Structure formats: structure tokens, C-alpha cells
Amino acid sequence: MLNINIKNKIPVGLTALCLVSLFGLKDTGIFVNEHVQTTYSGNKVYFEAGEVAEIVEKVEDGYIVSKGKAKVTIPVEKIQVTESETTTYKVVKNTSIKDSNGQIIRSLFLGEEVVLVEDLGENLVVRSEDNVKGQVSKSNLEFVGTEVAKFDAPKIETKDSNVVKIETLEQEEREIAETARNKNVESVNTDRVEENIPSNNEKANEAIDLALNNLGATYVYGATGDGGFDCSGLIYSVYKEKLGVNLPRSSSEQSSYGAQVSRNNLMPGDLVFFNTSGGGVSHVGIYMGNDNFVHASSGQGKVMVSSLSEDYYNSRYVNATRVL
């Protein structure tokens, strides 16, 4: 289902073009599966299934997505757009589309409409109906309107085969899914939860100490210690880089690694997982005992200690694994 909120009227023909191929300044989407993208500088940027994608622009190869200070191109099949905002301007004075060096790309005719790509202040980066992109002086344009198109978010299910299935939910299915989330239905298969699994207390305590050494460190998307951590990056740093446990990188993959343990059988050093995005496991921490766990919190922006009994985490708890 598609819902459209038109702040000012836009011609139908241009509307169709906008929805199909032109994306404005505030487009968002959801990653339908995990993805790792390497930047030009060689750094890796990690995205998890269900993570919100801040789309900067639609390009030939996919979407340019902003994460922290990084901007990377993501293949189209990795993202489902959930909201697209398109701002349109009309040419009211004779002008041209120019490149960044001021060279004319092509002339614009009076009354022609263009779609905003980026606001540079006195100049706007726009795209014409024939897909020509460049800069135009704002003084030669007149604001027409802004259109917001909202699309149904995908349902992301992690199967036993680790294949992520994407489905668009109808209203009845969305209501069922919401009810299930409210009742804390687990999204990870824990049918094979084992009890009485031995734990390496010495290694577990070392893992906790290593994590606690980073208390107050800044939460940084995709980071494993270089200037900060994201939630799974903290786990990856402690268990793989420090203790040599061959953990995968993302929280959803980590939730299936090791032996599944029940919540009432948690021991220090166990990994605890949460569904904070509504699309499956998306957060992880290290259980410390006494109902507490240490984690990198995106909401608080730092590494901190929280309680499993807090309403937020209690209602979003999914599963736990023992890797030591």
C-alpha cells in the first residue's frame, strides 16, 4: 500500500516520474538483509537487516546512503524504500543547468519543472525530467511543492537457512505482527535451547572486564573500537579480537552462534539479544550477572550498563547464547 501526502499540487505525469526514479533530500528505507560496504578509504561500513537507510540520492548503481560521516553506494536490492520526499521547482527565468565548474550542461525552458536533489544555498542541485542533473541559481526558480510518498515497510524474517525473506504486509498481517511483537514472540529459533552448559568463568570474567574498560566510549555505527563501537562491534572486539572467539560481525548472526541458553539459566559472559527494530534481532550485550548487561547503546550514544528488567529491554528480549 502507498500513501501520498501532497503539500502542494504537482502534475500527475511528474508525480509518476518522481515516485519511480527521482529521490529527494529526505528519503528513507530499510535494509532487507545484512550488508557490508567498503569505502574508498578502505573502511568497512556495516548495515544490519531492519536498519533504517538514510538515502541521499538514487543513482544508476543503487542508492547513496549516509551513515555517520560515510556515504556509500548500496545496491538497489539491499534496500526497500519506505518514505520518499520529493520537492519540485518551476523555471521562471531563462537559465541553464550547469556542472560544478559552472559549465552549461543544457538550457532550461520557461515553465519546465525540476526536482530538488540538494540545496546549496544560492544554488540548487536539481534533476530535470530527462534525467539531467546539475546546478541552477535558486533565483531563477519558483517553489512548486513537496510530495511525501510512504510505502509499507517490509517484513523481515530470518529463516533456519539464514535466508532473509522479504514480504510486504497487508493491514491484517501487520496487525498480527504487531500483536506478536507486543507479546515478545521470539524471532530466533530457540527450540534447541540447552541447559547445564558449562561456562568458562575465567574467560567470561575477562570478557566482562574488557567490555567494562570501554564504559562511556562513544556509540559509532560500524565501529569496532576505532573511535567507538556499535553494539555488535563491542562484542566482536571483545570476543573475537581480544579473546579469539570466531564470532560473526552482526548481532543477528551472532544470535545464532554458540549454544542457546534460556533466560533463567543465564551466566556471566553470555550474549543477550534484543529486537529493537521490529524486524528481528538488532541489538546485543554481554550478561554480567544480577540481571545486568553491558552494551553499546545507540539511544544513549555510549557503552553503558543496563538491566534486563527495564521495561524497554524486558519487552524486546529475544534469546541468549553461550560462546565461552
Written overview of the protein:
This protein has 324 residues and is of the alpha+beta class. It folds into 2 domains: 2-151, no CATH class; 187-322, endopeptidase domain like (from Nostoc punctiforme) (endopeptidase fold (from Nostoc punctiforme)), CATH 3.90.1720. Helices cover 17% and strands 40% of the residues. Strands 1, 2, 5, 6, 7, 8, 11, 12, 13 and 14 form a 10-stranded antiparallel β-sheet that branches. Mean pLDDT is 77; it is low at 1-25 and 157-192.
Show the helix and strand layout.
Elements: E1 2-6, H1 12-21, E2 27-31, E3 35-38, E4 44-47, E5 52-59, E6 62-67, E7 70-74, E8 79-91, E9 95-98, E10 104-108, E11 113-119, E12 123-128, E13 133-137, E14 141-151, E15 154-158, E16 164-168, H2 171-182, H3 201-212, H4 231-242, H5 251-254, E17 259-261, E18 271-274, E19 283-289, E20 292-297, E21 302-307, H6 311-316, E22 317-322
Antiparallel strand pairs: 1-14, 2-5, 2-8, 3-4, 5-6, 6-7, 8-11, 8-14, 9-10, 11-12, 12-13, 15-16, 17-22, 18-19, 18-22, 19-20, 20-21
Keywords: Hydrolase, Protease, Thiol protease
GO molecular function, one term: cysteine-type peptidase activity
Protein name: NlpC/P60 family protein
Summarize this structure as a short list of keywords or feature phrases.
disordered N terminus; 10-stranded antiparallel sheet; 6 helices; 6-stranded antiparallel sheet; 324 residues; alpha+beta; elongated; endopeptidase fold (from Nostoc punctiforme)
